[in-house]
User: Fold this.
Amino acid sequence: AGRFAALPDLDVALGRRVAVSVAPGGVGWAGLAGAARAGVVLRAAAGALSAPPDQPDRLDRLAGPPVDVGDWIDDPSADLPEGDPGAVWAGVLHALSRRAADAVERIRALQPEWDRMVVIGGGGRSEPWLRAKAAITPVPVWRSAAVEAAARGAAACAGAATGWWPSPGAAPAPPMARVDG
Assistant:
């Protein structure tokens, strides 16, 4: 997602498959460019590789060059390409990262000065996936310490409702760390 102070050119947004909506908090605009259903894809890949759900990133340490999984992420019910499990897992992470990089480029068509990608949620826990994103994405990749972003957002809303902050956006921002590719 990207934030814009002014409404971007909607014809360009539609042409780039970027949805435009009022930004959270009602200040400015947000552009949303979908990349892939990462959770669905990762669960399917972990299952196909017989890796426990909390351990597939360990496969990456054993991998050679990533296996090209092609468009498998579009249909994770299909059979995964054959290969060393670590290299196949790395290939899935690279394919998802290419989709994220494409989404960044689509947002940058509307806001060329957009200068970073911030990873939140479960993807922020995966070191191999973060490294793949940082290596492929055309802007610096940052990781938010708020890996449970929905819980953090709920806490910020609760804090604002109880008067701790004037708005959820005024809650302290979680620490960020730059990811090297």
Observations:
- The mean pLDDT is 84.
